[in-house]
């Protein structure tokens, strides 16, 4: 691990979970043990294990990850500590107990179902203030897209659906639109003043009035879309100058609660 790296973990906690953990490790040593537990009302244990010996626990309550709910965990590596965000909000900080450069793997186990784990080199992400989450929502994507980039959108979608646009100066690289009246999701691109051929998918598992998490993972080949923890769509790049795709635009009948552009 290096200074400035962000580890993002998306998933869903089991409705009957007693605990799960996310560990940053080197061989048998654990640099960061992040351990939600659900007894005594729910809390988070932070710890490390060096040479087979666990250190002093650092505990914070209440847990930001309720049983049965979707979650986004982000760990920002800095020179002095791990800065941890839960669902877009700063949650805790854990000072390094071993050199961060020794950490070379992540381990996740317990009563949880992960949907996406990514590693990115980014500037620290600052949660968008609630007043800024009004729709239509528009944000700059710092540095544009690149392989490995993750965009996370959370909220509640209403009957008239919503539209997500990933834009560049002269067009739309990726358009994503759940449409309840047609019971489909439409994906497309807009280049040189013309819409391309639509790619149409079944609407499931998106439901009106229910919490929604849309995660868009940009790979070398295209966009992988996860909805509520399930990979639902793959859309191949039609516009390949990824660094020029630098605007996230969200419109429609949706109440946003968290956006990571």
UniProtKB/TrEMBL annotation:
Keyword list, A-Z: Lectin
GO terms for cellular component: cytosol; nucleus
InterPro entries, per the entry: ConA-like_dom_sf, Galectin-like, Galectin_CRD
One Pfam short name: Gal-bind_lectin
UniProt keyword annotation of Nucleotide-binding present: no
GO molecular function: carbohydrate binding; galactoside binding
Domain Galectin, chain residue ranges per copy: 1-120, 137-261
Domain of life of the native organism: Eukaryota
Example of a GO biological process term: negative regulation of CD4-positive, alpha-beta T cell proliferation
PANTHER family, per the entry: GALECTIN (PTHR11346), GALECTIN-9C (PTHR11346:SF80)
Record's protein name: Galectin
